[in-house]
Amino acid sequence: MPLMSPPSRVTIRHTRPAFLATALAVFVVVMLAVYSAAVTPAYAATLLSQGKPATASSTENAGTPASAAVDGNAGTRWSSQFSDPQWIQVDLGASASISQVVLTWEAAYARSFQVQVSANATSWTSVYSTTTGTGGTQTLNVTGTGRYVRVYGTVRATPYGYSLWEFAVYGTSTGTPPTDPPGSFWGDTASIPAAQNVVMVKMLNRTNGKYPDSQVYWSYNGQVHSIAEQPYFDMPVNSAGRMYFYLGSPNSQYYDFIEFTVGASVFNGNTTRVDAFGIKLAMRLHAHDGYDVSVGEDQTTFAEDRAVTFQKFVNEVPAEFKPLAQVQAPYRIIAPGSHAGFRAGGANANYFSAYASSVGVSAATSDIFGCAASLANNPGMCSALNRHVAHLPQSQWSTPSLYYQAAPANYYSKFWHDHAINRLSYGFPYDDYASQSSFISHGNPQWLLVAVGW
Ligand SMILES: [Ca+2]
C-alpha cells in the first residue's frame, strides 16, 4: 500500500483576549473580597486523585501499597521503606490545573519534601517545598499544571519511612485523557545502545505478567530470540520487512507482526490490523532530531486482559461483525473480508451492495473490505466506503469526524481506531488515505520500541 507522509504534530496555543483578562481580574478581586477569610481556593476545585493509579518508590510491606493513599479511606495508608529519598505519585488520567494538595501524614512523616507536578512522569516541576514539615494534616495551596503529582520526600522526621493516610489532589481537569501511554510504559530509553546499522529496535514485554521475558519471542529474517535472551536488534537496511512476535513459544498461535521498510537513514513502518488482531502491539519511533511518535493499541487496551478486549469488540460492533471476535477466539479477531459471512454465499454477502451501488460502485462486500478487485486502484473510494462517507462530497472524505457515523461501514476498523493511540490504526488496506493509519516515518532514526501485549 502507498506510504503517506508522517502525521504532523500541531501545537495549539491558548491565548486570552485582553478584555477577558480584565474581566477575570475584576472577578478575582470580588472573589477575594468574598472569600478572603476562607482557607480553600475561591474557585471550584474537584478531588482528582481518588481511586487513580498510584505508584511509589517503595512500600514497607504488602499491607501499605501506594494505592492506599488515594483510596479515600482514612484507615488505610501507604508506607515506604525506612530510607531517603522516597516518593509517591498519582496519575490523574489527564492534564489538570492543580490548586491544592492535602497530605494526611501518619506518625512517620516528612521533614523535608517537595510536591511536584509533571506532564509525563519523567520531568518534574516543584510547586511546594519545605524543610520544616509539620506532619499531621497539611493543606497546601499550590499552582501547577500536570497529569502526574508526586510527593518527593528527602528527609524523614522519624527513623521510620514516609507514610500517608491520604494524598489528595484538588484542581480542575483541563484535558481529555490521552491515549498515548505514559513514559513509564516505555521504560528506560537512556540505556538503549547506539545502532551500528540504521535503528536500534528494543522489544518490550508488556503482557502484564502473563508471560515472562523468556516466553516473549521476536523473529526477523530467520532469527528467533526471546526478549530475555536478546531485547535488542540492530536493524539493517531492508525492504518490505516484517518482524513477528510470539507469546509462549516460538510457534505459538498467539502472534502478530509489524511491517517496515528501512532505508540507509530512514525508518518507515506500521502496526497493522488489516488481516487480523493477534496480540496487542504498539511502537514508538525516536529520531536524533527529537521526533518521537507512538502508534498502536492504546494504553487502556494494553492494561486490560485479552478476554476483556475480545468482549469489548463483541459489545461495540453491530451483529454482523460480532463473529469476527468469535470464530478464531481466543487467538484472533479477524478482518471482515476474511469472514465467510461477508463472502459469496454468506449471510452478509450483500452488506455493502446497496450503499456501494448508490455511489456507482459495483463490488463484492469482501472486496470493499479488502480494497480488492475494482477498488484495488481506488484508495479514496475504498476508504470512503469503509468509513461510510462515500455518499458525501469528495472534499469531505478526509474529515475524520465524519467517519463511521452510520451503517454500512467497516466496524472492525472503527473498533481499532477507537482503541488506538491518537485513533490511528491500519484497519483496512487503504486506511492510510487521509493519514488515518498507524504508519510512521522519519529520517535519521535513533531507536524504535516495540511493546508486545496480551
Ligand atoms: Ca487511605
UniProtKB/TrEMBL annotation:
Taxonomic superkingdom: Bacteria
Where's the F5/8 type C domain?
36-172
GH64 domain: residues covered? 162-454
Q: In this record, what's one Pfam family?
A: F5_F8_type_C
Q: Which Gene3D superfamilies match?
A: Galactose-binding domain-like, Thaumatin
Under the heading InterPro entries, the entry gives:
BG_Antigen-Binding_Lectin (IPR051941), FA58C (IPR000421), Galactose-bd-like_sf (IPR008979), Glyco_hydro_64 (IPR032477), Osmotin/thaumatin-like_sf (IPR037176)
Q: What is this protein identified as?
A: Beta-1,3-glucanase family protein
The species is Sphaerisporangium corydalis
